[in-house]
Amino acid sequence: MRNINILPTGLIFGLALMFGLTAIAMNANNAQAGSGPNYCHDEAANKKGTNRCSSNNDCDGARTCSGAGWCEGTSRSGRAACTPAKFYRQANRPEVLYQYTSDLYCRVQNESQMAAWGGFDKVQVVKKMNAAGRMTGDCGWPNGFYRRKSHPEVYHLSGKGIAPRIGPSACHVINETQMAAFGGFDKVMVVDDKSEIGRGRSAVTKCNNP
What we know:
By secondary structure, the protein is mainly β. The protein has two domains: 118 residues, no CATH class; 63 residues, no CATH class. It has two helices and 14 strands; from the N terminus they run E-E-E-E-E-E-H-E-E-E-E-E-E-H-E-E. Strands 7-4-5-6-9 form a five-stranded mixed sheet, with no helix packed on it. Strands 13-10-11-12-14 form a five-stranded mixed sheet. Strand 10 and strand 11 form a beta hairpin.
């Protein structure tokens, strides 16, 4: 089977540490320590008054706090409301959490998995987080075709489960002819060798022809 190289997205993604994750608090209206284009903050709720600030944390988007105590600069595009995202990262920690139901959340395994979910642009950086409900460990992979970088086996993940796009089924493609029948190798995403592709799914079986 031919190799397909997929480059990781821009952010450096460290493996998450289990210790302390359940103590992290999630607050979707407060963001990273310092400003940035995805920094989400409601300046109208500032203690000093609307658009008044004590630090960059009090200013929306890439706006900064001036010496006179006013937010200035470029806010987020369209000044959309600070609505909660599904993927969160605390500003001073590398791991990304995925809130996939109102009371269940998991930890994204690595950069490859975040790319499979659409990339780091989907991650809302927050100052402090409190994920709702129960941590279920490492996240499963969304439905699709995957191959570990140093291995030729291709896996097909499918079905419907509790989390969107994470079903219960996993099978391995038996040969190139079958992969062609599924639509070809362009559908296969190459992921980090340490990826647990079958996470949260039933035992892997041989794929049936489509």
